[in-house]
Amino acid sequence: MSTDATLSPLSSPPPATTIPAKDHSRALADAVRTRRERLGLSIARAATSAGLLVFEWFAIEAGKLIPDQSDLDAIAHVVQMSPTMASLLALISRENQPKVS
């Protein structure tokens, strides 16, 4: 039995949609702020608990400061985040900082 079926050309895929890129320079800042808020901690209390000044904590949550490892470990403890995760987020943030000319 012979069929004379005609194959239609492959249809084109739908046009690609542009998804806005996430600002990975804020990975640590956003995670720290979100966890602090979920724990119900004020910035002042979190900063004091981590041994930081309030303006330092503000700068971290604003994505303007990436702390050194000892401060990062203290922050991770305060917001109940693993030190490894905090270090990874700091690395992602550091690597995605805007380039200054």
Shape: elongated
Segments where pLDDT lies below 50 for 5+ residues?
Answer: none
Named CATH architecture:
Orthogonal Bundle
Alpha-carbon distance between the termini? 72 Å
Total count of domains = 1
| Structural class designation | mainly alpha
The CATH H-level superfamily is lambda repressor-like DNA-binding domains
Counting DSSP H or I runs of 4 or more residues, the number of helices is: 5
| Proportion of strand residues | under 5%
Number of strands: 0
For the report, how would you describe the main beta sheet? none
CATH topology: 434 Repressor (Amino-terminal Domain)
Helix content: 40-55%
H and E string: HHHHH
CATH class: Mainly Alpha
Mean pLDDT: 86
Radius of gyration: 23 Å
Describe the secondary structure blueprint for this structure.
Layout: H1 27-38, H2 43-50, H3 54-61, H4 69-78, H5 83-95
Characterise this structure.
By secondary structure, the chain is an all-alpha fold. The protein has a single domain, classed as lambda repressor-like DNA-binding domains (434 Repressor (Amino-terminal Domain), Orthogonal Bundle). Helices cover 50% and strands 0% of the residues. Helix 1 runs antiparallel to helix 5, helix 2 packs across helix 3 and helix 4 crosses helix 5. It is elongated and about 60 Å long. The chain starts with 26 loop residues before the first helix and ends in a 6-residue tail after the last helix.
Highlighted features:
about 100 residues, mainly alpha, 434 Repressor (Amino-terminal Domain), 5 helices, elongated
